[in-house]
Design goal:
Keywords: Endoplasmic reticulum, Glycosyltransferase, Membrane, Transferase, Transmembrane, Transmembrane helix
Largest sheet: none
Low-confidence stretches: none
Mean pLDDT: 93
GO biological process, one term: dolichol-linked oligosaccharide biosynthetic process
Helix content: 55-70%
Strand content: under 5%
Pfam families: Alg6_Alg8
Shape: globular
Oligomer: single chain
Order of helices and strands: HHHHHHHHHHHHHHHHHHHHH
InterPro entries: Glyco_trans_ALG6/ALG8 (IPR004856)
Transmembrane segments: 12-30, 115-137, 149-169, 175-200, 233-251, 298-316, 328-346, 389-406, 412-430, 442-461
Radius of gyration: 22 Å
Length: 480
């Protein structure tokens, strides 16, 4: 590509700006700051570093005198544990007290907070940034230099992920970065690389399962069109199994060890949902008290059936007519189906649909313009509790000023933004009735659920309508 050097220079500049914004966001509070006895997600991540560098691998997921699973026990797959170990070594080198066994609980020195923030920034630079650049180079290679630079900026400056990873405090950049890398490999037709990268994403956070139906159906659809379909499926399956075996190797010595890890990954005991999340179960619970009507076992089955019913159309379309844009739409639609209907969804899980929605920015502009503000609003109560009000509004303003053109503000968009603005003010300034202490959280969840449901119906239509257009084009070419 002739403009590769200029794109590389633009990518470096955008990455530098993105790092600066992450660092500025990290100057603010985080989940559970100064809030004993369990603090929050910041303490969970720090505690996992403490556990992994001080205990043998066999005790990482097991309840022992040194590992109280009731206090932020590891509940993500092995790759998260290995990441915690690497970061734990880093923290021990520069601030040994921050990861000392037992005595470091609730440790919140300024020095350790700076180091912890840097572990997330470095994780972003190591995985998420290169994956985003690789995806833009692969999927938008026929687009102009300006368009590719713009979409890369949108991916790297997308405010929802910045606020959760660098404000609230998590490492979603790793699992999501691996998933983006896998998507880039799919676009480039490197199917085995895609299987390895997506398997790594699954082994970092089990929520990457939201994308699994899209990867499975697209790669199956591609394999069925090859000369030796069975052989190709076997190769891809071998890549997946080998990657899983490598990640799980320290736990494969016994059935008990495997089951111990698995038991930590499936949060059945937490119930259908916890906080107010903008999905079907939480919003409909205002009228239908699911938890009181049905036992957890039945709710798990109901959630499974509802999720399966909603992902099947996208899967079927990709098996019948696999395409690059159809695959990305399937990633979006399947992840939203999981967000809407699966069991025990957290409000932060909206990041899963946001990623493919952002990757499709140039192809589906209506999606990201509505999705990103809706995603931010759906997490607003969480971010307020974290003390992130200033970076929330700063990043929201940056998003509108930097990416949303004035011509897109039609009466429908203006009225929806006005409604969101009113709900923000009500949450911040008004006291809810004593009888309904979470009234405004319920309003926000219901409002953003309506947003998301409309987007979900639209993108499912787009996936199938796009498929019919491609099919008609192919038929005309054959006739010619």
């Amino acid at each position: 590509m002739r403009d590769a050097p200029s794109f590389r220079a633009s990518a470096i500049f955008i990455a530098a700006v993105a790092v600066l914004i992450r660092l500025l966001t990290g100057l603010h509070s985080y989940s559970g700051a100064g809030n004993p006895p369990k603090y929050g997600d910041y303490e969970a991540q720090r505690h996992w570093m403490e556990l992994t560098i001080n205990l043998p691998v066999s005790d990482w997921y097991r309840n022992t005198t040194d590992n109280d699973l009731g206090y932020w026990g590891l509940d993500y797959p092995p790759l998260t544990a290995y990441q915690s170990y690497i970061h734990g070594v880093f923290m021990r080198k520069f601030d040994e007290q921050s990861v000392a066994l037992h005595s470091s609980r609730g440790y919140e020195s300024l020095h350790s907070k700076v180091l912890m923030r840097w572990t997330v920034v470095l994780s972003d630079l190591a995985i998420f940034f290169p994956a985003a650049i690789a995806f833009v180079a692969a999927y938008y290679r026929q687009r102009s230099h300006e368009e590719r630079v713009w979409v890369l900026a949108l991916i790297l400056l997308q405010p929802a992920l910045i606020l959760i990873d660098h404000g609230h405090f998590q490492y979603n950049c790793l699992s999501l970065g691996l998933a983006i890398g896998a998507a880039a490999a799919v676009i480039s037709r490197w199917e085995i690389v895609a299987c390895v990268l997506f398997s790594l994403s699954l082994n970092h956070k089990q929520m990457s399962m939201y994308y699994a139906p899209a990867f499975f159906s697209h790669l199956l659809g591609i394999s069925l069109r090859k000369k030796y379909p069975v052989l190709n499926v076997l190769k891809l399956g071998a890549a997946v199994l080998s990657t899983f075996a490598l990640c799980w190797w320290p736990f494969l010595h016994s059935r008990e060890a495997v089951l111990q890890v698995l038991s930590r990954l499936v949060p059945i005991h937490r119930g259908l949902f916890e906080d107010y999340v903008s999905n079907f179960w939480c919003v409909s619970n205002l009228l239908i008290k699911w938890k009181q009507l049905l036992p957890d076992r039945v709710l798990v089955q109901l959630a499974f059936v509802a999720t399966l019913a909603c992902i099947l159309p996208s899967m079927l379309q990709q098996i019948l007519r696999p395409s690059r844009r159809g695959f990305l739409l399937a990633m979006f639609n399947c992840s939203f189906a999981f967000y809407f209907f699966s069991y025990q969804v957290h409000e932060k899980s909206i990041l899963l649909p946001v990623i493919p929605g952002t990757l499709l920015a140039l192809d589906e502009p209506l999606v990201w313009r509505w999705l990103i503000p809706g995603a931010l609003m759906s997490m607003f109560p969480l971010l307020v509790r974290d003390g992130l009000l200033l970076p929330y509004f700063a990043l929201l303003l940056l998003f509108f000023l930097g990416f949303v053109p004035l011509r897109s503000f039609n009466p429908v968009a203006a009225s929806s933004l006005l409604g969101g603005f009113v709900l923000h003010l009500a949450y911040l300034l008004l006291d809810p009735p004593a009888r309904y202490p979470y009234l405004f959280e319920a309003f926000i969840a219901t409002y953003t659920f309506a947003y998301f449901a409309a987007i979900f119906l639209y993108t499912n239509y787009r996936q199938w309508s796009r498929s019919r257009v491609l099919s008609s084009t192919q038929k005309r070419k054959k006739k010619v």
